[in-house]
Amino acid sequence: MDEIRDDSPTVKALELKQLRYLVAIVDTGSFTEAAHRLGTSQAAVSRTLSALERLLGVRLLHRTSPRARILLSGADELVREATSGHVRLHIGHAWSAFGRRTTEFQRRWHAEHPETELRLIRHDSPTGGLAEGLCDIAVVRSPKELAPWSHALIGHERRYVAVASDDPWARRRHVRLGEIPARTLLIYRRTGTTAPDLWPEHERPAVEYTHDIDDWLADIATGRFVGITPEATVSQYRRPGVTYRPVRDADPVSVHLIWRSHDPHPATHTVIALATALYREGGDETKVRP
Prior knowledge:
alpha/beta; Arc Repressor Mutant, subunit A; 3-stranded antiparallel beta sheet; 20% strand
């Protein structure tokens, strides 16, 4: 199919209602539930989707819904800004934002940039909601998520081992990376920063996987597993039954901001500057050797 230009009659004929209906169908999983959410009939939802598919000449549900969500989110934001004169900035993260620097970031932002409303959005995806169109900028701690986004390094965080509070390691000041293979390591597969390649191939620990950070914490509290995580988790996820101790000889985790190259938020560089300053002021968690 030929490429559709932004100024083509097809694009001009698109309606926000059609995108909104498409996103509702994907989110709810059915035409009936989508109709209930939208306050309309199932027949109206079906007709709207069919009209959009005829307009574009493709089947839509599995091909274009992420893009529709991005377009719809941007359009909604544009309407809010135009009618209120107030700009919003959404910063996404998978589970810990800026860690112990998060509150100070929010305080300084509200004090120094009151014209731009800041909202932090937690979304359990590798890009913290950026790929899903839910935020303008996202905090990520995985180098593999940097492409294809524009990105900036803002700091580093030490790695910590998470253990049950009655574990003998909880009474120690630190744990060495080479001691971990004696235990079973629990890895949060979806957005975690730990992988078996932290160790040489012949020295890797036994590994189990989980798909939710709350389950990760709950399983570690049982004493059956240990986990490794950046310093941000220590401040954002304090949990009874779980104790964190520094891993002395592990390389730190790099913290980046990512954003869409073609459509950066006007405040992007201001966010980078403030976040970088906070990591510098609070002590960038660099590599610590014994």
